[in-house]
Amino acid sequence: MEVFEAIFTRRSIRRYTAEGVSEEVVEKLLKAAMVAPSAADERPWHFVVITEKDVLTALSQGMEHCEMLEEATLAVLICGDESLEKIKGFWVQDCSACAENILLAAHGAGIGAVWVAVYPLPERIDLVRRVLKIPEQVTPFAVIAAGHPAEHLPPEDRYDPSRVHYQRW
After folding, report:
1. Which pTM was predicted?
2. I want to staple 128 with a disulfide (CB 3.0 to 4.6 A). Which of 111, 135, 140, 152 is the partner?
3. Under a CB-based contact definition with an 8 Å cutoff, are residues 89 and 148 in contact?
């Protein structure tokens, strides 16, 4: 799949079949995440790969509007580690780039995925930290729920020229 096709056809997929995602694909998703740009190339991230049904269920039931986690066969938690930052305050952007790379790589591999926000919601941060035993100095940022898609959504054209400004506002 070429890059523009991947970008323009990727959709948030929230329904999955029971088929698991192969370890090979999981590794590709993680490699895609870790090649994301980061401020000063500091890479202030950690990842938790989740495939255990009981853990996915606990996350799903503990976070409102996150039913897709219960149906997912894979989730990847992206965490920010401020102790790895050389330039303070950029970990959120860096982890966002990881998340988008995972979403595009999943789409390219035929895997459906959706970004589930954790940060900056204190109740979600606390739940994820507790369920996954995340150290206090590491911040859970986002969970990417994934699996073989049980739904296929058509591409959407969201281009809005009224939001584009040239040279000045």
Report:
1. 0.97
2. 140
3. no
